[in-house]
Amino acid sequence: MTTKKVENLIIGFGKAGKTLANYLGNKGEKTVLVEKSPLMYGGTCINVGCIPSKFLATAADRRSFSGESDAEYYKNAVLQKKALIAKLNKANYDKVASNENVEVLDGLASFKDEHTVQVTNGSEVSEVYAERIFVNTGARPFIPSVPGLEVGKRIHTSETLMNLEEFPKSLAILGSGFIGLEFAASYAKFGTKVTIIDQGDRILPREDEDVAKEVFSSYQAMGVDFLFGAALQQVSQDENAVHLSYTVNGEKKELSVDAFLVATGRQANTEELHLENAGVEVSERGFIKVNEHLQSNKAHIFAMGDVNGGPQFTYISLDDFRIVKSFLDNQGSYGRNERQPVAFSAFLHPTFSRVGLSEKEAREKGYKIKVATLPVTAIPKAKILGNQTGLYKAIVDAENNQILGVTLFGEESHEVINIVVLAMMTKQPYTVLANQIFTHPTMAEALNDLFGAVK
């Protein structure tokens, strides 16, 4: 077996990996990019994550404008989603493969030693020796150990459900986190009867109670049912349904549905890498331990994106590229410690966005705070958009007037939150947003009223 020798080896075609591959290739450095599955060129976001899920969510929002039946409309949306993803997948491959200094290898990568990786593609096996190695293998849905719970046929993860062309008249979701809630909203709007099963006593336990209650009310209004304090005991399926056995306060209950979604978190894709052969340390959950420059305990092996245990968003993966680029160019003037406040948005009903601390977190950290809330019913643009559900909430440091955190549960919050991030990045006092002149009518102008209410 011959061993290919290159300067850089990247394992995983995610946002950080593909961006780094082109960057290194453009510098003239010989680079190999290994991807386990051709269906994942471009990574999680474009293939099985944010792009397809938001495409379906948008299609669900537009459902009322179609004259088709629920089943016809849903199937067409899935087929259009598949066509879009196929185009994006090919475009991502072509962009990297066209770089004369980058070679894309299909196959499963596993470490032979700290510089050598074996790539297996069916019966073909090759080896790559690299001076530097960058792991960008991402994460996958976690499947809890429950008798009969095996993904396939009518039992799905967030990745497989989006390929289901047969319209499910009923759907049960295990887990009431953001992933479960996103799919619950989309399928409820498509016309599916949705039931969420969770062992907890309320949704979003890490969020402030007033915000969580507002989200819960929104889902109740959509007709979504919640089974709290429910422990799943047994799962089975046949040609027609998935049968769920669960207990609530020791009482046995059963539910049968057309489809079942497991949305109980994600885990690192590291087992098949055999990192132990390279001496790379991982956490208890399998994520690669890294320093502020994203180096593992082996200085020439880096981990980028979801696999390093950081926030699991594609824009964080892109920022991980920036951190690695900074280290390679000038020994790391920009690292994790310099990262700006990171916002996130979950496409619930309406969109839920947050940056910084919640009220609960701020009090736990000992801050003296000012708190302001604003119901979305008070925002004129919400009336125009036809959805007045939601709540804006701001947390401010009472001692220096800096914004500690903001939660926006309302239409278009995924756009508005970026204005707050900019104010926090530049360390502006909250009064800047209270007095900014916004265009009208917009959801953003409600920041005037929100921060104007800070006392």
Describe this structure in words.
It is a single chain. This protein has 455 residues and is of the alpha/beta class. The chain has 13 helices and 22 strands. It has helices at 15-26, 44-48, 50-61, 70-97, 158-161, 178-190, 209-221, 314-330, 359-364, 380-385, 413-425, 431-435, 446-452, and strands at 3-11, 31-35, 102-106, 108-111, 116-121, 124-135, 139-141, 155-156, 170-174, 193-197, 225-227, 230-237, 242-248, 251-257, 259-262, 266-268, 301-303, 343-346, 352-356, 369-375, 391-397, 403-409. Strands 1, 2, 3, 4, 5, 6 and 17 form a 7-stranded mixed β-sheet that branches. A 5-stranded parallel β-sheet has the order 8-15-9-10-11. Helix 3 packs antiparallel against helix 4 (70-97) and helix 3 (50-61) runs parallel beside helix 6 (178-190). The mean pLDDT is 96.
Could you name the ranges where pLDDT drops below 50 across 5 or more consecutive residues? Answer: none
What is the 3D shape? globular
Task: Indicate the structural class.
Answer: alpha/beta
The helicity comes to 25-40%
> Averaging pLDDT over every residue, what do you get?
96
> Whole-number radius of gyration?
24 Å
State the separation between the terminal residues, measured CA to CA: 71 Å
Would you count the extended β strands for me? 22
Percent of residues in beta strands: 25-35%
What profile does the largest beta sheet have? 7 strands, mixed
How many individual helices? 13
